[in-house]
Amino acid sequence: MSMTALRAAMVPVTRRVRAYFAPINRVSGAPTIFDPGKYGLFDLDDPPAPWLDLGWVDQFQRFCGTSTEALRTGARGAPAEQFRGMLDARVEFNFREWGKLQMALAGGSEHMNVLAPNPSADPQPSGGTPLAAVAVLPGSTASEIVIGAGAVSGFSASDVVATDMDYQQQTGYVGTGIAAAYVNDPADVNRDANYIRRVTFNVGRVAQLTANSLVLAQPLPGGAPASGAGVQKVIAFVDREGGAFFQEWSGVFVAEEESGGRICFHYPRLSATTTIQTSVRPGEANAAQASVKIFQRENNVQIAQPMASVALRAAFQAMPHTDENDGQTVVCYRSYFPAAMAGLY
């Protein structure tokens, strides 16, 4: 068979891009590493732990603003050598599915669980005083929360629950397994014992009840509850415009192979940011000074009049990572897995 006959297989063809995210250790700054040799051809419906499948995304766009500068010498300033200037890389897309993590990444700041309210509580935009937490008992796992026979009757199949520790006046990052918020001062969160469960990513849906436990439809993203944790019902999720906390995660985006090879884009560290779109204020003479960044939070994707699906717009700044093999500072890795018997060049 001639090489010419293999050329068609060298063209990657894809329908959609799929997004996977994994937590960063916010204390040490260590990202979750995607090794293409070890994980590259994983089952798209069963990503390797701790990567979480956030579904299909569209309008996936990567932007590179890293400049290339020249060192010039001589009377005419001829370029003698080149070097890279300031690193600047971004990625934007629409989440086509809504969930706790999709909303948190698209919103960019702390993401709140609206805990089941105490009927006598004063109303608050992100949820008022909740019903008391139920103690989590020993033997609990990421997929099954043991609470005892007496407490099971307070829950139903299909309930959403948050499982995490009581807030105990500590400062710094909080949240089991995944940093969900940063507390500078206990007074900032009103010394609320439920605060960690308000922000935790350790949420799950109850699939069934046993005599003494809640069996979850999916494992808790942050892992098994720690000793002394509590569980509370979640009514809804809410994010907020503003806030001092920045979501930071490792990301992998896979262009599914319809024919030809698979392409993976691995960003070791992604920090939520604004989109690079700009808009000019009406009446301003100097467009360069008047332009402002715009972050389109949602997109309506037309289905058939009058119906449209609502997509979450997300944008991220790629943060630097030091490659372990040669010490180079990089922001993204692009991997290509050729189709079987395809030409290589």
Give the topology, please:
Blueprint: E1 17-23, H1 36-39, E2 52-64, E3 68-73, E4 78-84, E5 89-95, H2 100-107, E6 111-115, E7 134-135, E8 144-146, H3 149-152, E9 160-164, E10 172-174, E11 181-183, H4 195-199, E12 203-209, E13 213-216, E14 230-239, E15 248-255, E16 262-272, E17 278-280, H5 287-290, E18 291-293, E19 298-304, E20 307-318, E21 321-322, E22 329-330, E23 333-337
Instruction: Give the number of DSSP strands.
Output: 23
Sketch the topology as an H/E string, one letter per element. EHEEEEHEEEHEEEHEEEEEEHEEEEEE
Biggest sheet details? 7 strands, antiparallel
Average residue-wise pLDDT: 89
Terminal residue distance = 16 Å
Rounded to an integer in angstroms, the radius of gyration calculated over CA atoms is 24 Å
Helix content: under 10%
Strand content: 35-45%
Overall number of domains = 2
